[in-house]
Design goal:
This protein is α/β, with parallel strands linked by helices. It contains 12 helices and 11 strands. The chain has a single domain, classed as Ribonucleoside hydrolase-like (Inosine-uridine Nucleoside N-ribohydrolase, Chain A), CATH 3.90.245.10. The two termini are about 20 Å apart. Bound molecules: alpha-D-ribofuranose and calcium ion (CA).
Length: about 300
C-alpha cells in the first residue's frame, strides 16, 4: 500500500520538485498540499504551488491555503535566490475553502490520518497553530518527516536554517510536541548535489513532470553554482521526500533538539545535544548523511 503524505510547502523551486516526487512515485499517495508563507509571500507560494500542480499533472491533489505570516517574528523572505515565480502557465486550480490549519485538525482528529506522514518543507506555522487549537493532535499525527534545521551550521545565519528561522516559535511548539520527528537538515541536503549531467538524465525520461523538474532544477543549479565550492544545486526538500520513499537512502542519529527562540545571534538554531550530554529524551531522528547516487535513483524513479 502506498505511503500517504501531506506536504506543507513554501514553493519555492525545491518544494516544487518535492511535490513532483510525492505525486508521481508509486510508493507514495499525495493526500494534500498546504502552501504557507516562507521562501516568498503566501500569494506567491500559493501561485507557484498551483502552477506546479497543473504543469506536473497533479491537479487532483487538494490545496488548503495556510498561514501568511509567522506566529510572532517578522516575515523573513528568502535570500533573493528563492524569490522566484515558477516558469509555468497560470493554473485554473481552485484551492479548497477550508484553511490548512482546520484541514490538519479535521483530517488527523477524524482518524483518517493515522497512517499519513506529515511533511513540512517550509516554516512550521500551520502545524503550530493547529497544535495550539487542538493539543490532542499531537497524539494523532503518527510521524513528521521535515526538511529544516541543521545541527552544525545554518544557511540563513551562521546558526539557523531558513525554515526554522522563518518561524522559530512555531518550530519550538512542533519540536516539543512529542510527535515523532525525522529531521532532514542541511547536513543531509548538502550532500545531495544535483549536477547538469544529472539533469540531462532527467530530460531523457520525457514525462511532463520530468520536464518540469528538469526546468526547475536547472534554475536551482544556476543559482547555486555562484556559491564558492558548489558543483551543482541543492534541492533541499526533495531529500525529505526521498527519505520517505526509501528510508535506507539516509543515515540518522537520535538526538535531543531544542529550538533557540531568544538568542541575538542564534535565534532559529536547532540546538542538538549531539553527544547526549544532558541525557534528555531524544525527540528527533536527525539525518546525518545521504547516499547521493541512491537519492538520484529515487529522483529518476519518481519522475518516470
Ligand atoms: O533551507 C532550505 C529550505 O528553505 C527549503 O525548504 C527551501 O525551500 C526553503 O524553504
Ligand atoms: Ca521549502
Amino acid at each position: 500500500m502506498a505511503q500517504k503524505v501531506i506536504l506543507d510547502v513554501d514553493t519555492g523551486c525545491d518544494d516544487a520538485v518535492a511535490m513532483l516526487m510525492a505525486g508521481h512515485h508509486p510508493a507514495l499517495e499525495f493526500v494534500a498540499v498546504l502552501p504557507v508563507h516562507g521562501n516568498v509571500h503566501l500569494e506567491v507560494t500559493l501561485e507557484n504551488t498551483l502552477k506546479l500542480l497543473s504543469a506536473g499533472k497533479l491537479e487532483h491533489v487538494p490545496v488548503y491555503v495556510g498561514a501568511n505570516a509567522p506566529l510572532i517574528g517578522p516575515i523573513i523572505a528568502g535570500d533573493g535566490d528563492q524569490i522566484i515565480r515558477l516558469p509555468f502557465p497560470e493554473s485554473s486550480i481552485q484551492p479548497q475553502e477550508h484553511h490548512a490549519v482546520n484541514f490538519l485538525i479535521d483530517y488527523y482528529m477524524s482518524g483518517e490520518g493515522k497512517d499519513t506522514i506529515y511533511m513540512p518543507i517550509g516554516p512550521l506555522t500551520n502545524l503550530a497553530l493547529a497544535l495550539r487549537i487542538e493539543p490532542k493532535l499531537a497524539k494523532r499525527i503518527p510521524k513528521i518527516v521535515t526538511m529544516g534545521g541543521a545541527y552544525i551550521e545554518g544557511n540563513t545565519t551562521p546558526s539557523a536554517e531558513f525554515n526554522i528561522l522563518a518561524d522559530p516559535e512555531a518550530a519550538h511548539i512542533v519540536y516539543s510536541s512529542g510527535i515523532p520527528i525525522t529531521m532532514i537538515g542541511l547536513e543531509v541536503t548538502d550532500k545531495a548535489e544535483i549536477r547538469k549531467n544529472d539533469v540531462k538524465r532527467i530530460r531523457e525520461i520525457r514525462t511532463p513532470w520530468a520536464d518540469a523538474a528538469a526546468e526547475i532544477i536547472d534554475i536551482i543549479i544556476d543559482i547555486h553554482l555562484k556559491y564558492p565550492g558548489r558543483t551543482g544545486g541543492i534541492v533541499y526538500d526533495a531529500c525529505a521526500v526521498a527519505a520517505v520513499i526509501d528510508p535506507t537512502v539516509f543515515q540518522a542519529k537520535p538526538m535531543h533538539i531544542d529550538i533557540e527562540i531568544n538568542g541575538t545571534y542564534t535565534r532559529g538554531r536547532t540546538v542538538a545535544d549531539i553527544r547526549d550530554r544532558k541525557k534528555l529524551p531524544k525527540n528527533v531522528e536527525v539525518g546525518t548523511s545521504i547516499d547521493r547516487e541512491k537519492f538520484l535513483d529515487i529522483l529518476y524513479e519518481s519522475l518516470r
